[in-house]
Amino acid sequence: MKHQHYSDVAREGVEGYSGVTVRWLISKNDGAPTFAMRLFEVEPGGASPYHQHEWEHEVFMLEGRAEVVQDSGAAEVSAGDAVLVLPGEGHQFRNTGDGPARFLCMIPLPD
Amino acid sequence: MKHQHYSDVAREGVEGYSGVTVRWLISKNDGAPTFAMRLFEVEPGGASPYHQHEWEHEVFMLEGRAEVVQDSGAAEVSAGDAVLVLPGEGHQFRNTGDGPARFLCMIPLPD
C-alpha cells in the first residue's frame, strides 16, 4: 500500500498548457495496474488546449470553478462535481474563478 | 460528457459495512470504459470489514480522518491523501475522527 499527501508529490509543468501544473499521485511506477490518478492545479485564467484523444477522463473538482468547453458548448463545474469525458470527445478545461482550480483527473494506463 | 455534483447522486447503503454509504458517481451505466468512481461516506466509528480482492483501490481522502488497517499494521490518512491498495492486499477503512470521513474510491470495471 502506498499513501501520501498530494502536496508531497512533485508538481510538474505541462508542455503546451498555460498556467497548469500536474502531480502524478498514483501511476504505473507505484504498481497501479489499470489507471492513474493525477491532481491538476490551474491558475485563474489558465487552461488546457482544446484537444481530444482515444481515452476517457474521470475528473473530480476539489476546489474552484472551471468551464469545460466542448464543440456543443461550455459547462460550468465547481468543487464537488464529477465529470466524465468519453473517449473521442473534444474538451478544454478553463479556470473561470478568481482562485486556483484543483481537480483530480484519472486516466487509463496503456496495456 | 456527463457532469454532476456528488450530492445529486443517490446514496446507497453497503451490505456488511457499518455506518458506510456509497454514491456511484461514474460507472458502466454512464459509458465509462475502464474504471468507476465512487464516493464513500463513513460515520464516526464506521468501518468496512477487513477484506481482500483481485482488484486495486485508488482512494483520495476528501474530508476527515481514517485508518487503513492491514496485516502489517495501520496507517493514518486524512484529507488530501492519496492511497493505493494493490490487488490482493488485505485492507479495512475505519473512520477514526469525530466527523464524517469522505473519500473517493476508484476501481477497475470488469472486462
Describe it for me?
The structure is a homodimer of 111-residue chains. Chain A contains no helices and ten strands. Chain A has 111 residues and is mainly beta. A six-stranded antiparallel beta sheet of chain A has the order 2-3-4-10-5-8, with no helix packed on it. In chain A, a hairpin with an 8-residue loop joins strand 3 and strand 4. Chain A is globular. Chain A starts with a strand and ends with a strand. The interface between A and B is large, with 40 and 40 residues. Strand 1 of chain A pairs antiparallel with strand 8 of chain B.
Give the topology.
2 copies of one chain form a homodimer.
Chain A: E1 2-5, E2 12-13, E3 18-26, E4 35-47, E5 57-63, E6 65-70, E7 73-78, E8 81-85, E9 92-95, E10 101-108
Antiparallel strand pairs in A: 2-3, 3-4, 4-10, 5-8, 5-10, 6-7, 6-9
What are the key terms here?
globular, 10 strands, Jelly Rolls, 0% helix, homodimer, 111 residues, mainly beta, 6-stranded antiparallel β-sheet, 3-stranded antiparallel β-sheet
